[in-house]
Amino acid sequence: MVVKFLVRACAVSVLFLALVSSQCAVADEHDGIADRVGDGDPVAGEAKSKAELCQGCHGEQGNSSGAEYPRLAGQYADYIMKQFRDFRSGARQHHVMNAVAGSIKDEDLADIAAYFASRDRVRSQQKKSNEIAEKLFVNGDMKRTIMACASCHGTAGQGSYVGSESFPAIAGQHKLYLREQLLKWRALERKNSPGGVMNLVAKSLRDEEIEALADYISGM
Ligand code: HEC
Ligand code: HEC
């Protein structure tokens, strides 16, 4: 199943993406905890993420309760680090995180990212069924260059790690945050995905589809 999705992602990538095509040879998706946590030290990261106030907004274990603060628990450490560096360079814009990101050293960041990555993400008890979202998630709609979310984000939205590249976990993320990000990708207000892939995916999503996807994925 996983291989099928990867093959599909690769076929799509031949058309659209230099990035993913470089990974096509590697069809063995692996998702051990080591891939998630990376090289940092989660124990040191716990103290550092507290001292640097990350926990104040993102939650003690990375399971924030405020819907505008993305959950970092169970996220890939290298995705966390990439976003952080993108906030620092301005490649990703957000007034709070652009300010926060300036002050943390890279070695501390690796530990902090490892800590959040090692935590389990709290999942909603209530699975949401939604036909529109489910179809897009599993099959996409290639007529509109909407590639299946599952092919990169994993069949359960848990993210995936292919070669040395990670695709972020999105399942169990706050609905409001998911909706905001999809709207930003569509409006080209967020442009930091490799090869612009998320801008392409979101380009022709309709408002009601974004709403449906955000609702569905938050309940996964
Ligand atoms: C004052 C609140 C606040 C603090 C403190 C804070 N963050 Fe954030 N963080 C946010 C908000 C809000 C966002 C969502 C930005 C957006 O909507 O684009 C965010 C986004 C992020 C993201 C992107 C997540 C994703 O799924 O793409 C990462 C990674 C992150 N923060 C890491 C950190 C780390 C590490 C620290 C501590 C050094 C930290 N943040 C401290 C508010 C905060
Ligand atoms: C070809 C691979 C690919 C496909 C298909 C894809 N994504 Fe993504 N997506 C990515 C990558 C890579 C990122 C991380 C971009 C970055 O580095 O900022 C991402 C990021 C995201 C984010 C932001 C996560 C966060 O924490 O901020 C959301 C939300 C998202 N994708 C939703 C979707 C949805 C919904 C679909 C299906 C309609 C989809 N994606 C299809 C590759 C993909």
Task: Walk me through this protein's architecture.
With 220 residues, the protein is mostly helical. The chain has 2 domains: 33-118, Cytochrome Bc1 Complex, Chain D, domain 2 (Orthogonal Bundle); 124-218, Cytochrome Bc1 Complex, Chain D, domain 2 (Orthogonal Bundle). Helices cover 53% and strands 3% of the residues. The protein contains 13 helices and 2 strands, in the order H-H-H-H-H-H-H-H-H-H-E-E-H-H-H. A two-stranded antiparallel sheet has the order 1-2. The longest helix is centred in the N-terminal third of the chain and has 15 residues, at 2-16. Mean pLDDT is 87; it is low at 1-8 and 10-29. One heme C is lined by residues 52-54, 56-58, 68-70, 72, 80, 83-84, 94, 96-97, 100, 104, 112, 180.
Task: Write the SSE topology.
Elements: H1 2-16, H2 18-21, H3 33-37, H4 42-51, H5 54-58, H6 77-89, H7 95-101, H8 106-118, H9 131-139, H10 149-153, E1 160-162, E2 165-167, H11 175-186, H12 197-202, H13 207-218
Helix pairs in contact: 4-8, 6-7, 6-8, 9-13, 11-13
Bound molecules: heme C (2 copies).
One heme C (HEC) binds next to helix 10, helix 11 and helix 12.
CATH architecture of the largest domain: Orthogonal Bundle
User: What Rg, in angstroms, do the CA atoms define?
Assistant: 17 Å
What is the straight-line distance between the termini? 18 Å
| Annotation field: number of helices | 13
What is the subunit organization of this protein? single chain
Beta fraction:
under 5%
List unreliable stretches of 5+ residues.
1-8, 10-29
Question: What does the main sheet amount to?
Answer: 2 strands, antiparallel
Spatial order of strands in the largest sheet: 1-2
In total, the number of strands is 2
Q: How many distinct folded domains?
A: 2
Estimated helix fraction: 40-55%
| SSE ordering | HHHHHHHHHHEEHHH
Mean pLDDT across residues:
87
Structural class category: mainly alpha
Q: Could you name the CATH homologous superfamily of the largest domain?
A: Cytochrome c-like domain
Any idea what the shape is? globular
Assign the CATH class of the largest domain: Mainly Alpha
Bound molecules: heme C
CATH-defined fold name of the largest domain: Cytochrome Bc1 Complex, Chain D, domain 2
